[in-house]
Amino acid sequence: MNKRPEGMHAITPDFVVRDAAAAIVLYEKAFGAEVGMKMNAPGTNMIMHAEIMIGDSMLYLSDPAPGIERKAPEEGTLSSVAFYHYVDDVDAAYKRAVDAGMVGKNEPSDMFWGDRTAVVNDGFGGNWTLACHVRDVSAEEIDAAMAAFQNQAE
Which of 6, 97, 115, 146 could be a cystine partner for 131, CB 3.0 to 4.6 Å? Predict the structure, then answer.
């Protein structure tokens, strides 16, 4: 018997959000998420545990629950967790996410470390960096770009 279920990675994000059902609908529209298991608390619509697949990665979601120490981010704030989501086409993924109802924070642009990225906020406390690797960059090039970035910031 495999110690890790088929298709699972060593680490799986487990995200508590207010209105997990609405978050799931948004992730389906924005990222093409596929819903696997979903368990509601008996006699309620509160999601105790849901499993959604985005690309090749699983994300667990639940609503806040009485007696559970993990809490959803306060409304209007971000959690300390952000997602770096590799996609095939950042520009198309950004448009799809914004069209689905996410808020664009950074439009697509090429980054010095070799990825093209864009950032969207899901309204449930999560920031999602959409990324696609567009060029290989040496460690020396990254160091030079970081130095130039720091010089601009000063």
Answer: 115
